[in-house]
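ok, trying the design again with the full structure, not the truncated one.
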């Protein structure tokens, strides 16, 4: 993908010289200027550093290899070397890849060793805010679409768990998510799965999940919590459900009253079976490890 400056250069070249100008620009693509060894060195350097413009890489190549490229020529070179222009991915700074791998192995072992009547659920809280969320959509060229916003900051506090085998969601709305509301959620889960054996719940390390009250409740419960490694939201499959929920209910949507917003949110989870086909491809156990490809700023 071309960067913004390159696109502007091509536009100016076309306006000044037409198609002939585009076909006779300064890029010479027949013979690479860098040797194979230098190209490998450049690739390794770009993997470890973040460049937002081709001209910055041109300067690095000039200083390091004493080879001259135009920004346009460098874009072609980067494409040939297997690079593309896209956004970086934000991950928790303290994510531990080894701990994540260890969890995945333990999870696989749990699935193999659990009894047929046991259940595995993924649990987390989500706090959708009553305000419009702008997102990508198809818009006519040269036009823009406006979404009204709300002035309030009211939000819904939801605490839930999903069974990724059946896609059943057990969810509660409370004034706040704390130890007491979590215990109420556990009551609902145990009631829903009255015939199940042990109910394993995968969750993050929120303080209320580790509170004294919750520990006391779990001492005489069929529920056993398996905690995720710290800073590993990528391993909690319910996070994908929250993202799917936002896409369906929040993105580019406007609700003029809080009650309409709240009812729409709760209706989504009440009718979750309408999305079974989509969830079956989304909630797969293809866990991704984060923190292994962190580069320099």
């Amino acid at each position: 993908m071309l960067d913004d400056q390159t696109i502007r250069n091509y536009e100016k070249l076309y306006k000044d010289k037409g198609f002939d100008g585009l076909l006779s620009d300064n890029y010479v693509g027949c013979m690479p200027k860098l040797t194979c060894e230098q190209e490998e060195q450049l690739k390794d350097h770009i993997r470890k550093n973040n460049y937002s413009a081709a001209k910055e890489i041109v300067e690095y190549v000039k200083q390091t290899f004493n080879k001259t490229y135009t920004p346009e020529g460098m874009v072609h070179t980067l494409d040939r070397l297997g690079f593309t222009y896209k956004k970086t991915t934000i991950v928790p700074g303290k994510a531990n890849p080894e701990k994540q791998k260890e969890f995945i192995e333990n999870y696989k072992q749990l699935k193999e060793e659990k009894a047929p009547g046991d259940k595995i659920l993924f649990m987390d809280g989500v706090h959708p805010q009553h305000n419009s969320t702008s997102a990508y959509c198809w818009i006519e060229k040269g036009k823009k679409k406006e979404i009204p916003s709300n002035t309030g900051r009211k939000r819904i506090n939801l605490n839930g768990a999903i069974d990724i085998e059946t896609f059943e969601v057990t969810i509660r709305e409370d004034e706040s998510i704390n130890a007491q509301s979590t215990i109420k959620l556990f009551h609902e889960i145990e009631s829903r799965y009255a015939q199940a054996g042990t109910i394993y719940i995968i969750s993050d390390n929120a303080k209320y999940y580790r509170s004294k009250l919750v520990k006391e409740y779990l001492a005489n419960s069929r529920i056993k919590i398996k905690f995720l490694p710290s800073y590993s939201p990528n391993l909690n499959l319910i996070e994908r459900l929250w993202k799917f929920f936002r896409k369906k209910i929040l993105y580019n949507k406007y609700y003029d009253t809080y009650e309409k917003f709240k009812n729409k949110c709760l209706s989504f989870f009440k009718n979750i079976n309408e999305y079974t086909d989509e969830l079956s491809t989304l909630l797969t156990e293809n866990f991704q490890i984060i923190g292994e490809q962190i580069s320099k700023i």
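Keeping the full-length input from now on. The chain has two domains: 4-80, 97-282.
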